[in-house]
Amino acid sequence: MTILQSERRHDPYPYTWEPPVAILTGWLLLAALGVHLARALANGTAGAGFTWPAGRALFTSLPAVLAGNPTAGLATTTPGPAASTPALYGWLIVVQLLILAGSTTAVVWAARRWGPGRMKGMASPTEAEQVLGLTRLRRNAPQIRPDLYPTTTKRRRPS
């Protein structure tokens, strides 16, 4: 069995606290932006237009928005009626569930792509089909998988 060059040359990097903190910080930032996106969608569906807080109020208005105030942190008054508290909470739930589903999908994809269970040194079936083609795979099956396609020698029976 052959060993890949990357498996022979191991440069260990100690797992420290930085990667988990960076991931958690990124997810919390995404969740905070999701709160404001949900508020903007709630106000937009209520007729108040797409609303976004000013830069300074981005984080300071989070507690008030989560408490049910759809106009917290907005610099100007909305052109129409602001969203109701149930509509705001409905949009908050929908947007946060979408963020959770998207981040879960991204983590699963990254784990399959770069995680410990990834396939090392082998082409995927799609990559093998692109390089070799189905006809060539079938023609060279005994060389590719000799355990599944043994070579048969045609022998003549003695007469």
Structure summarized in a few sentences:
This protein has 159 residues and is an all-alpha fold. It is built from 8 helices and no strands. The two termini are 44 Å apart.
Q: How would you characterize this protein structure?
A:
The chain has 159 residues and is an all-alpha fold. It has a domain at 20-114. The chain has helices at residues 5-8, 18-46, 57-60, 62-66, 85-114, 125-132, 134-139, 141-144. Helix 2 packs antiparallel against helix 5 (85-114).
The averaged pLDDT comes out at 85
Number of helices: 8
Largest sheet properties: none
Tally of strands: 0
Residue runs with pLDDT of under 50 for 5 or more positions: none
Radius of gyration: 29 Å
Shape: elongated
Q: Helix and strand succession?
A: HHHHHHHH
N-to-C span: 44 Å
Structural class: mainly alpha
Name the beta content range: under 5%
Helix content: 55-70%
Keyphrases for this structure?
159 residues; mainly alpha; elongated
Reconstruct the topology from this structure.
Blueprint: H1 5-8, H2 18-46, H3 57-60, H4 62-66, H5 85-114, H6 125-132, H7 134-139, H8 141-144
Helix pairs in contact: 2-5
